[in-house]
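2024-03-11 09:14:02 DEBUG pipeline.ingest accepted 1 chain
2024-03-11 09:14:02 DEBUG pipeline.ingest length=272
2024-03-11 09:14:03 DEBUG pipeline.predict start
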Amino acid sequence: MPVIVRGDEAKPISRIGAEISHLLTADVIGNDRIGLDHVTLPAGSSCDVALAPGMIGWLQVLEGSGVLAGTGLTTKHIVYLPFGFSGSFAAGDADTRILFARVPDAARFDEAIADMPGELVHVDWTREPVLQSEHDARKRVYLATPGLVGTSAFKGEMISYPPGTAAPEHHHVGAEHFQYVVAGEGTAMLDGTAHRLRAGDVLYNYQHEPHAFINETDADFVFVEFFVPGPCETVWSPGANLCAWLPTGVDSDGNEPVRDIGYHVHGQDGGI
C-alpha cells in the first residue's frame, strides 16, 4: 500500500536551532531505499549535512536561502552530494526550509556509481527546459538525470498541474518513488481511491501500485518527484493515454534553456 506522510502531522525534532522532521525513514516505508527530512532553520542558523559511507544524496531549498560548502543556494537550486560528503548548511537572513534526501548503499542502484562526480554539484533547475504534456497544460522540469547528476541511482523532476488537469493512471516497475507537494492541493487516485494532498505532504509509491493525479482546485498543484533507482518501466492502465512530453523551447523564466530535451514518453527518458 502507498504511504502518505502528512507534513502538518510530522513531529519535528529540535537540534541546535534547527527543527528536523523525518518524513521518510525505513520504519515508515519498510525499506532503506531513501531517507527524507524536512529541515526548518531560523535566519542565521546552521545544520550539519553529512552522509554515511556508501551514501549519496541531495538538498533542495524550499524557502529562503543559504550556503553549503561555499556554494550559495536559493529556491532555484538543488545540490547533489557525493560519497562521503560532510558539511554545514548555513541559512541566510531569512527563515529557511530545505529537503534533505539520502540514498544509502547507492552502488546497488548504479553499477557505474564510481563515475559520479566526487565534488558538490548544484543545478539551477529554473534554467532547465520546460516540457508540456501532449494532452493538457501540465508542465515538467527535470531536476535529476544522469546528465545532470552523473548517476542513475535516482531520478527527479518537478511537475505542475494547472487547474483542471489530470494524469492518466499508471504504475512503475523497477523503482519506487515519492512525491513531495511543494505548492497547492491535489487529489491522488491510489488504486481507485481518492486521497487529498496538500503542500508539505509526501506520497510514497511502491512498484506495481496504480496511481494518478487530478487538480480540481483553482490554483496550481506542484510536486517534486524522485525515483530510486532512476531507470524504470512505466505501465499505463487499460484505456489510458500515454503521457508524452513536448519541448516548449523555454525555461521557467521564459528564456532559452541551457539544453534541449526532445519529445519523449514518460519512462522512455534514457540519456536525458
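2024-03-11 09:14:41 DEBUG pipeline.report The chain has a mean pLDDT of 94.
2024-03-11 09:14:41 DEBUG pipeline.predict end
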